[in-house]
Structure formats: C-alpha cells, structure tokens
Amino acid sequence: MKDVDFVIITGLSGAGKTQAMKALEDLHFFCIDNLPPALVPPLLELHGQTVTNRQYAIAIDIRVREYFSDLRRSLDWLEHSGHSYHLIFLDCSDTVLIQRFSETRRLHPLVKGQTKSESIAENITAERRLLSEAREMADVIIDTTDLRPMDLRVRINEIYLGLPLQDALLVDVFSFGYKYGAPIDADIVFDVRFIPNPYYVDELRPLTGEDAKVADYVLNYPVTQLFLEEFTNLIRDLLPNYAKEGKARLTIGIGCTGGQHRSVAIAVELVKRLEEQGIQARSRHREQSY
Q1: Model pTM score
Q2: For residue 190, how many other CB atoms are within 10 A of its CB?
Q3: Where are the domains of the chain?
Q4: What top-level class would CATH report for the domain 6-163?
Q5: Which of 3, 9, 207, 277 has its CA 20 to 30 A from that of 72?
Q6: Per-residue pLDDT tens digits for 3-35
C-alpha cells in the first residue's frame, strides 16, 4: 500500500475518521475533510499542474450524503486516470457508538438543528443504511469497537507503510548550548557537560563537533562511550512505548555549554548508532542555525 495515490476514509460517525486522518497527515498525506467526491477530479487536476508525487486523503461522512452518489463515478475516474486509490470504511458497534456520543455530548450528524426527535440508536441505524453502498465498495473495513485511538493509528501505519508504528517514529536529535537557554520543545534533554571540553584546546576551539578532530577528541573518552552505549540502548528500548502513546516524533536535546563542540559530536554519533539499529533518526544543531 506504500504507493497508493489517494485514500478515502468514510464510515459511521464516531467510528474514528478524525483519528484516521491525523494518522494519514503524519504520513504526509494531503488531507481534506468532507470534500464532495465530485470535486476529486478537479482537485487532482489543479494540483497536478504544480505538484508531483503528492498523496491525498479525504474524509467523507454522512454530512455530505447527497454527494455519495458521485463516489463511484469519482473512483472510476481515478482508476481510468491512472491514479491508485484505497477506500477505508470505519465501522463500530452500536453500543460503543452510543457510548461515544453520550460521553462527548455531541449530536449525531443526522439530527436536524437542535431537535432530538429520534434516538441516537435510530440515527445510527439510518446512517448504516445510507452508507451501506460505501461499505460494500470499501477495500478495507476496520472495526474500531475495541480499538483505542492509538490502535487505529497502528493499523493505518501498517496498511500504508508496511511497518509497525515504532518503526515509523522519527527520532529528532538536536544539539544546543545552555548559555543560550534550555530548549522548551524537547521530550528528553540530556546534559553532556560532564565530557571534557574541546573549547580549551586552542586548535579545536574554532571548529565544531562536525569536524573529525573535535569528534575524535569528544568520542575517545571512556565516559563518552559509556554514555552513548547506555543512552542508545535506553532510547531503543523505550521507542515502542513512545509509539504506543501516539508520538510520530521523539525529540531529544543534547546540551553542552555553547552548543558547538560536545553536544554536536554527541548528537551526530547518537543518530549514527540509532540508524545502525534500524531506527529512523536525524540530527540538527540549534546554535548553528542562526
């Protein structure tokens, strides 16, 4: 499913379309909520003039029920135009749907205005009937009755990446200098000022941790190797738990005094070791971006 061009998410109200769209957005799909199916062809034609290799995802629910008759025609157009598509239908038991609407105190989309002339159960039954054709057309039906939002996210990732959620998580490692302020956007911050400072070596002072001489100086200390080994293993072991909580990216700040030598070398080496273990990782250097 990696190469699918277009994903349509539909299904029962309260079954998890919002969570599914968030998962697709994290996978870099261009997401649109409640686009009438008839507008799919002009949308792709418009973006095709300026953007290539873009993947799209739209959510269609009962609020645009008058347009569902156009859905099959739009899917036929996609197929004949050479675009691959995938239709996901989100289902859920009536009992759980009723509970979800009760907990959120939201009106069912089939309720007109503020008049509650029908029960939630009756609205769900009517919605099932109206969406029956879309359900039959679906490539995949996901029953979210017993799924947490994160379980649905895992399922979406498995479908479109062919990867467990933890393998799709990006570890973003950045260096910084405490003298310029501690970061406020990091999930984990580690202070590496316990490592001897290359700043006090005249020939290394004008260089950065990306230079081989500085990196060798920093990495050759036994305490540095101990830190890198222990910290790499810690991140590897914790990643599945971060993934289960819904993180698409884990941000790690590595700090030294000025953010030029030790933290830079450590950030680069940490990313290298994580990648060797099959973990997606990248490094950046806050103080060098100014």
Answers
A1: 0.59
A2: 15
A3: 6-163, 167-288
A4: alpha beta
A5: 3
A6: 677 898 999 988 999 999 999 998 888 898 888
